[in-house]
Amino acid sequence: MTVRKRGQVWHYQFQFRNQTICGTLPEAKSEAEAKQLEADERAKQRLGLRTNTTVDDDFTKFVKDVYLKFSKENKQSYAHDEFRCETLTDYFGGKRFRDIQMLDIARFIKHRLGTKIKRYRQIGPAIKQRSPVTVYKEVGLLSSIFKMAIIQKVALENPCDQLPKSVRRTIKARNKRPCAMTSEKEKALLEKGLLGRYAHLKPICLFDLHTGLRLSEATRLEREHINLESDSKWIDIDGQTYEVPRDCFIVAKSKTGKARVLPLNATARMIAVHQLEDATITRFVFPSSKNEGEQLKEVKKGFAGACKQARILYGQVPGGITFHTLRHWFATRLEDLGVSKTVRRDLLGHEPKDMTDDYTHSTIEMRRRAVHLLCQTSSENVLNFEVRSGKSLAAG
User: Fold this and answer.
1) Contact at 8 Å (CB) between 97 and 57?
2) Is 53 within 8 Å of 21 (Cβ atoms)?
């Protein structure tokens, strides 16, 4: 008989006609009682007295029929779950939950860390080693699948919880790198890099230097999200109404799933005004330069070219910068100017870390004063900066 205690509750699992039958025994107070109740469940199964209790514990089938359906209906990260689940089902395909043990997951981690990847649209062979952060996210998703399987009575335990520290140390939650941007690199990027064929990226780069947005937040910014009027503007997002004061904009969709209202300093406002006056910009403030009216999808190639033109090292290497470095530089400059951690947190859209953080908030005026400090120390000449976007940039 197969009974096992997890926490304070006894669980059972047995096979019946090539099907896994499992469940919980909350009334059992001891192992003896659990075994007796499990025997009763077996008898009910043989006599046909149990209904809707046979469970198909095939890993791939559960992921596709249960987990991904739940993810699509309830999670904003569904697209990420979808392609990561494909990786998991490719590796664990053909296995049942009871067949996936801790050692199998450890082998999966070793296998994934040993593979190389190709960048988007890369023609040559894969040369870059897979990031431990990527594998960490895949194992985290696998753990979530097991937790749901336990709730649905398909699995008894989560083997991800049994991974030893020696294995966990090989995968990291995130890469903590120092900010490689400097004032000299910023000036070179704006004055030498973002010119000519790369000029179409200058508005979004400079806007990001003064707002600290994630790339996805900047590319999703729409005309209606910005308020340049003297009166407040009210915007409905997911059934909730937000006030957007003058010279502010709202990030409607963020990594945390929460909208936030941010102020525009002089430089960011100048860029917003120019973009909104462009007749070709109908929806997205920073549209694609190739497909008119569509959302900007990718900046890696253009940003890498701009860095090369400005003689700046590009990439996630020591001393190299990426578009995301602009967000780090935004936060670094604010800290250097003495802006409080609470204001920086709210500008960047980070989650509170503890109860004190949860009780501490910044006002829109506090955030407005903070971003205006950037204009006082900015290296670019705002008055002489000419922002051009769309197809006109190709001729610049």
Assistant:
1) yes
2) yes
3 state DSSP class of 200: helix
Q: Which two tokens stand for residue 201?
A: 């990226």
CATH class belonging to 183-395: mainly alpha
Give the start-end residues of each E strand in the chain.
Answer: 3-6, 9-16, 19-25, 116-117, 128-129, 226-227, 233-237, 240-244, 248-251, 260-263
Instruction: Kindly report the backbone phi and psi dihedral angles of residue 65, in degrees, each rounded to the nearest multiple of 5, phi listed first.
Output: -90, -25
Residue 302, φ and ψ in degrees, nearest 5: -65, -40
pLDDT of residue 1: 54
197-224 per-position pLDDT tens digit: 999 999 999 999 999 999 999 999 999 9
pLDDT category of residue 360 using cuts at 50, 70 and 90:
confident
- Binning pLDDT at 50, 70 and 90, where does residue 394 land? very low
Q: Give the tens place of pLDDT for each residue, 225-248.
A: 999 999 999 999 888 999 999 999
DSSP symbols for 101-145: -HHHHHHHHHHHHT-EE--TT--S---EEPPHHHHHHHHHHHHHH
Q: How far apart are CA 396 and CA 383, in angstroms?
A: 19
pTM: 0.71
From CA 220, how far away is CA 76, in angstroms rounded?
Answer: 15
Q: Which pLDDT score is estimated for 382?
A: 42
Contact 275, 286 (CB under 8 A): yes
Angstrom distance (rounded) from CA 206 to CA 186: 10
How far apart (Å, rounded) are the C-alpha atoms in residues 351 and 226? 23
- pLDDT tens-digit profile of 66-104? 999 999 888 877 889 999 999 999 999 999 998 999 999
Q: Where are the domains of the chain?
A: 3-47, 59-168, 183-395
